[in-house]
Amino acid sequence: MRYFAMQPGDIDPLEPDEVWLRSQRGTYFCPVCSFPQIERPLCPVVLSAKPKKCTLNIVGGAATDVMHIELFELLGSEFKESMETQTVSLSHGHRLADYIAIRARTQILIRGGPSSTAKGYCDLCGNLFYWPLPFESRHLLRRSIEDLLPVYGGSVVALVIREDILNRVPTSQLTGIQIYELPIRDVAEDGLPEEIGTRVTSEQRKRYEELLKRDS
């Protein structure tokens, strides 16, 4: 089984409504690291301006992805069942029916090589501050995809999507999206423990304190 990263090709984030963004601090967004708290339901998204034509993009400062409804429908029922969804609106309340906020129900850590950085984690929510380096070393651990779900949330990309799900979408519908294969490895290449995920548990914090704070 093959998996592919799916992310916006042109990194020009959508502008969030600042009042909405502030109102979600400490509720949906962690008050310490400002990342979404994945144990809480996805919240409705409010933008300051209507997106220019886009198929997949991220909301700046909110680490939340927005997808065009046409692509969402093309990806099929298995994909939909694996996602949380919410509405996308503008500051004055107008709902954007062509767009949907998305988050995969299961998150996965995309691993890198020995030069990957691990700068610790959020003391409140456990979010791991990690960047897989170099780019061409990005891979998945076999143990993290044993359930072979149709899609996962990727730590540094919007989605990690199974090949058969991706193949449902005509190439013409993927304009503006960067897609590349993530090789599957049996052993981590970054020197970090294989059981580490996107959130560090209290037990892992004690066990791997020094490793998680390295910056190589």
Task: Give short descriptive properties of this protein.
27% strand, four-stranded antiparallel sheet, 15% helix, 216 residues, five-stranded mixed sheet, 2 domains, alpha+beta
Write up this protein:
With 216 residues, the protein is of the alpha+beta class. The chain folds into 2 domains: 10-104, no CATH class; 107-212, no CATH class. 15% of the residues lie in helices and 27% in strands. It has helices at residues 18-24, 69-74, 76-81, 163-166, 202-207, 209-212; strands at 3-8, 45-47, 56-59, 64-68, 83-86, 88-90, 99-104, 107-108, 117-121, 128-131, 140-141, 151-154, 159-162, 177-181, 184-185. The strands form 5 sheets. A 5-stranded mixed sheet has the order 8-12-13-1-14. A 4-stranded antiparallel sheet has the order 3-4-7-5. Strand 12 and strand 13 (159-162) form a beta hairpin. It starts with a strand and ends with a helix. The model has no long low-confidence stretch (mean pLDDT 92).
